[in-house]
Amino acid sequence: MRARTLISPAQLGRRRGKILYWTVFGVTMTLFTLVFLGPLYWMVTGGLKTTAEIVQSPPTLVPDSVHPKNYQDAWNVMDLAKLLFNTLYYAFGALAFQLVLDVAAAYSLSKLRPLFGNVILGMMLATLMIPATVLVVPQYLTVLDVPIFERNLLNSPWAIWLPSVTNAFNIFLLKRFFDSIPRELLDAASIDGASALRTLRSVVLPISRPILGVVSIFAVVGVWKDFLWPMLTLPDPAKQTLNVGIYSLSNGVPQNQLIAALTIASVPTLILFLLFQRNIMSGLTAGGLKG
Amino acid sequence: MSAPTLPAKPRQSAPPARKHQLTPRDGSLTRTVKRHLSAHGFLIGAVLCFSFFSWYPMVREFLLAFQKTKDGRTTWAGWSNLTYVFNDPAFWQAWRNTLLFTALALLLGFAVPFLIAVLLNEFRHGQGYLRMLVYLPVMLPPVASVLLFKYFYDPGYGLFNRILGVFGIPEQQWLQSTDTAMLSVVIAATWMNMGGATLIYLASLQGVPGELYEAAELDGAGLWRKIWHVTIPQTRLILSLMFLMQIIATMQVFTEPFLLTNGAGPEGSTTTVVYLIYQYAFNFNNYGGAAALGLVLLVLLAAFSAVYVRLSRASDD
Q1: Which of A90, A248, B90, B290 could lock onto B280 through a cystine, CB 3.0 to 4.6 A?
Q2: Given an 8 Å threshold on Cβ–Cβ distance, is B21 in contact with A112?
Q3: What is the pTM of this model?
Q4: How far is it, in rounded angstroms, from Cα A161 to Cα A278?
Q5: Who among A114, A258, A282 is closest to B36 (CB)?
Q6: What was the ipTM of the complex prediction?
Q7: Looking at beta carbons, which residues of chain A come within 8 Å of B148?
């Protein structure tokens, strides 16, 4: 039984209500499919058209002749294998760093409660107040010459991985989930003589699978979607991400190959989305933004 | 597997500031110290990352804004970076463009997702599919959606002019004309990003108690009055929060204009503040100017949020 909404069930039950409901529903279905799925259809089929057909006016709804070879050409010409591999490497590296360091930090702040823990948490959350783009320039200068270590991280994956850990929102989500784990469970583990690390591994992490899933997806998607930061820190074409690589090659390749490349670049996150739809959607509202 | 259960809302009834666990149970001081040290051991990795890539850059942003770097030597510059930036005609143009973008993006990106959410919430069928559709573009890599839109916007073979033609509307120059360039950027950006907002509104609409609608109907309220007097007040908190977050986000727009119009657009009509920061830093090598610009943006957004929070709190009482 669903909750009652704006329109009353009685109104919907009437003939006029039913007709109106199905009309609006039909129009919405069609319109949304056209607006949100249509461009993707255009992208996939655009990649199949010939160079002449793709720039012809008026455009064709269905390709006159199908050229799957464009996809192969795009793959080879733009070296998409390398771009794809790079992006995966950065995304899963960032995921690993975030899972280890952010989970440990959130666990410590939530359950171990170290001295000055609240101050540290406050300082982490404060970073959410600063507009991210304002920090791009000083962050870039830091990557050029990391203080104390005196390292230049330009063109190195560390330039993506380490800053990705500074995700205060993830730490906040994780900490709040850990807060909701009953104290008694941890006390029991501690009475059994489990160390803090052992408790984290054997008690906290197994219960926290849902939130770990949400955080993981956001970590991967975050790297996959980023543009400005990888463009600045990975200028070497051999080390670029899909976004940056395709953008910098976009003017040199024929339109149909470019569109094919865009399709290829979209496939991994779309698959991720179709597989983890539920987690992604619930993760979105996990920020506790309830009206 | 069932849907993941989400963290409960922070419990209001959390144990009253329980003495934290690390207080010595057996009274031994070394034990307490050890416990705190191990707790800090778990924290250290994240804290180091924050120190280098977040906290230090924050401090450095302020320093940079008042420094000049020439031939590798850094000197104190006082307010000169700021006056330099303020005297740059591009500064004012960038602000005009950014505010225009923010206004248009709010018009489209704030109202449309809310209306869509209200509509979807009424449907008894296909909600999952429609929700998925709206969120689909959010998952695309920006380069894919932006270059796809660039292709749609093409005045010659682009799809958009074809569609307009069906309705008898003359062809537009889209990205090539100063009149429509910014609007074109906003349309693309809205399509790309509105899924998140829609789903958040939808979630908050599901929390509106149905009895309120029933009560309103007994009082003879029609559709619009129900939306105005029940739906909006009931979701007000989330609406105002999203309004604030969207302003903060849209004022920082960079990727969409950068990819669609190479940042500047016809006669600089899509140059945004963040693009100007980018230009200062990475085209003109003027880090001081870039930091000064960033500081202006930071101060403005902070002041705006503070006033906004104050106002919305005042209206709560």
Answers
A1: B290
A2: yes
A3: 0.84
A4: 27
A5: A114
A6: 0.85
A7: 39, 42-43, 259, 262
